[in-house]
Amino acid sequence: MKGENRKGLLMIFTxxxxxxxxxxxxxxxxxxxxxxxxCFIQFIKGSWHYGEMDALKRLSDLIDLExxxxxxxxxxxxxxxDKKEAKNAWEHAKKxxxxxxxxxxxxxEFTYAINYSMVDLEDVVETFKKRPQRLHVVxxxxxxxDELIQIADLVTEMKEVKHPFKAGIKAQKGIEF
Length: 177
Ligand code: ATP
Ligand code: MG
Fold this sequence. Notes:
This protein is of the alpha/beta class and about 180 residues long. The chain has a domain at about 10-130: Rossmann fold (3-Layer(aba) Sandwich), CATH 3.40.50. The protein has helices spanning about 20-30, 50-55, 80-100, 110-115, 120-130, 145-150, and strands spanning about 10-15, 40, 65, 105-110, 135-140, 155. Strands 3-2-4-5-1-6 form a 6-stranded parallel β-sheet, sandwiched between helices. Helix 2 links the parallel strand 2 (about 40) and strand 3 (about 65). It is globular, with a radius of gyration of 16 Å. The termini are far apart. The structure holds adenosine-5'-triphosphate (ATP) and magnesium ion (MG). Magnesium ion (MG) binds near residues 20 and 21. Adenosine-5'-triphosphate binds near residues 16 and 140.
């Protein structure tokens, strides 16, 4: 989009309530409507098959979905391996961010990799600061570190008011996965 006076934003969806990843998906889909290209990198490979994996494939000319890492952190059998995978995923994400191939880069569940010291926060801050001026970056995940919140342009904290899980209702297709 030539001549457009665009300012790349750093956006963070954090908090304990539901809606962080789905907000990032919604944003990518909205941008695709303008012909904008998104690289959507998932840092935690869940054990479920999420609907967005197939839905986003239908927009594969504009949205690249990359699933990296293992189901790391809480249920890990090999923390060193997880750490290495998270580091590799971040090195890859860095290249994607510094390339000029996309309009938006989403780092989904990235806060966990930072909070478990799998990636270096200083490196993340430096990389975000020197990204292409037009590039929008989205980070999702609970407990976003203050250092990221400080340099972000947009921060939304999803607050749990109610979640069906607490009432013993199982995860629903199309809603949670
Ligand atoms: P979603 O992917 O639905 O937008 P999210 O990205 O905000 O959710 P995560 O913290 O990444 O949520 O958690 C992933 C899974 O846990 C999702 O299936 C989500 O519905 C569920 N979940 C999110 N928040 C809660 C909560 N407060 N209590 C129970 N389960 C939750
Ligand atoms: Mg999520």
